[in-house]
Structure formats: structure tokens, C-alpha cells
Amino acid sequence: MPPALPPLQDIESASRDRETGMGASELHGSLCGWLAGGGGDGPDWLARILADAGVAPVAQDDPLDRLRQASVSQLEDREFGFELLLPGAEASLYQRSGALFDWCRGFVGAFGLAAGPTPPLSAEGQEALADLVRLSAAAPEEGGDEEDEEALAEIEEYVRVAVLLLHGDCALGPRHRGRLN
After folding, report:
1. Which domains does the chain have, with CATH numbers?
2. What is the C-alpha to C-alpha distance for residues 32 and 114, in angstroms, rounded to an integer?
3. Distance between CA 83 and CA 70 in Å, rounded?
4. 89 and 67 in contact (C-beta within 8 Å)?
5. pLDDT tens sequence across 45-68
6. CA pair distance 175, 128, nearest whole angstrom
7. Residue 148 C-beta-side C-alpha neighbours within 13 Å
8. CA–CA separation, 122 vs 108, rounded Å?
9. Where would you tag: which of 64, 100, 132, 144 has the fewest CB atoms within 10 A of its CB?
């Protein structure tokens, strides 16, 4: 089983301290987009996703380094143990859906940085990326009921599987093809 993600509040604090301009969910989405698009997982990952070479490398054992380690491990997990860093059930539906849309916004931006303009996507990968782009443009709505809670859970699961598919297309696929040649 891959390591668990650090607590959301630890990542919020680390992101705020580094003045990234992103909340924890968007930052995690960006990291995962970078990794899924084939970006490297070195200590300069934060500078890469922020497109700012002046950002200092992430130090070992920093909460952001633990986030990187857990995310890399989860994306590579053969048991599909990948998780999204989102607020827990104690947060309102509005907060949780907003965080999911932020997560997708971060993912799509960093995925594009890493994968480039023509990523090697399967037909399913193209569809998944288009869906993530649509979700990244969505906005949360106030209120909600049990049906909306169920819909959010289904969307979260879809995003999780879409990310694994895109990671397979752009990161795992080329790596495995390289070993065969």
C-alpha cells in the first residue's frame, strides 16, 4: 500500500508559506498533472509547475516533499491506491466541490506543461482530458442534497480513474515502450 497523502492543512500551510497562490487541492492537482504528463519528480517540481525557475527546490521531509513522494507512489501503485487531496466530509458540499474543481484546474494546467501540445493519448485518454478540462471550468453552487453528494462522489471517482488513465498514456506507456526497444 502506498503512503498516505499528508494532511490537507499541512499542505495549505506549506503552500501559503511559499506564496504559491494555490490552495492545497489545486497544488496537489498541479503536482499530479505534472507527473501524469510525464514531468520529473525531482526537487524542482514546484518551480516547474509554477513555471518560475526562481522557486527554491523542495527540501527533503518538507510537507510538499511528502506530498510528492506519496503522489508518485500512489500514481505508480498497481492496486490503484491513488487519492485526491480534498477536504473531508466535515466540509460543506460547496467547499468540497470547489476544491475538486480547483484540483482539476491545477491538473489540467500542469499536465499541459509536462505533456506538451500533442501528448500521446489513447482515445479514452483524450476523452478523459476533455472531461477534466470541463470540470476545471466549473464552479460550485450553494446548497445541495443527498443526490448532489452522490454525484460529487461519482465525479471524484471518475477524476481519480481519469488521472490514472492519463498517467498510463503519458508517463507509464512511454517508459515501458522505452524498455522494450
Report:
1. 8-180 (1.20.120.740)
2. 10
3. 10
4. no
5. 999 999 999 999 999 989 999 999
6. 21
7. 12
8. 17
9. 144
pLDDT at 52: 95
C-alpha cell at 25: 487541492
DSSP state of 137: T
Q: What is the mean pLDDT of the chain?
A: 93
Torsion sign over Cα 168, 27, 81, 136:
negative
Q: Output the CA torsion 132→56→174→71 (10° steps).
A: -60
Do residues 167 and 39 touch, judged by C-beta distance below 8 A? no
Q: What contacts 158, CB < 8 A, 6 or more positions away?
A: 131
C-alpha cell at position 84: 485526491
Per-residue pLDDT at 174: 60
Asked if residue 178 has pLDDT above 80, the reply is no
Question: What distances in angstroms separate CA 90 from CA 25, 79, 132, one per listed residue?
Answer: 16, 27, 25
Contact assessment for residue 37 and residue 113, using Cβ atoms and an 8 Å cutoff: yes
**Which three cell numbers mark 86?**
480534498
Helix ranges (DSSP H) in 7-92: 8-17, 24-36, 45-50, 63-76
User: SS3 of 72, please?
Assistant: helix
> How far is the C-alpha of 4 from the C-alpha of 81, rounded, in Å?
9
Contact 63, 16 (CB under 8 A): no
